[in-house]
Amino acid sequence: VQLQASGGGLVQAGGSLRLSCAASGINFRLYDMDWYRQAPGKQRELVATISRGHENSYVASVEGRFTISRDNVRRTVDLQMNSLKPEDTAVYYCSTKYSGRVFWGQGTQVTVSS
Predict the structure, then answer these.
(1) Which residues does 86 contact at the CB level (< 8 Å), separation at least 6?
(2) Other C-beta atoms lying within 10 Å of the C-beta of residue 61
(3) What pLDDT sits at residue 50?
């Protein structure tokens, strides 16, 4: 299983970024996909999940600002991040569970300046 994340960068508060994660090595449409983030000095936290049935869930702090989506043909999962805040600054990781293991992408840095 390989997960390749992209799309991070530096943005001012109030701006937007779109992260994308390309998956290979799994039958993508059968698996839930997650986006996590880890800020400096903090534990990694689950930000958003999209189920194989396209049901979404979000951590409260991003509800209404972030949208997770998936494309089962392209085998990608995206995270559209709007109204970004400095506290959204973190390394963002895509993730999935497959055959009892958790797989992670390499992480992409998102930095929001105030």
Answers:
(1) 13, 112, 113, 114
(2) 12
(3) 98
C-alpha 12/C-alpha 111 separation (Å) is 8
Percent of the chain with pLDDT over 70: 100
C-alpha to C-alpha distance for 72 and 102, rounded to whole angstroms: 20
Quickly count: other Cβ atoms within 10 Å of residue 91's Cβ.
18
Structure tokens at 28: 């993508």
Contact 19, 8 (CB under 8 A): yes
Give tens-digit pLDDT for 64-109: 999 999 999 999 999 999 999 999 999 999 999 988 899 999 999 9
Q: Where are the beta strands (DSSP E) in 39-107?
A: 45-50, 56-58, 66-71, 76-81, 90-98, 101-104
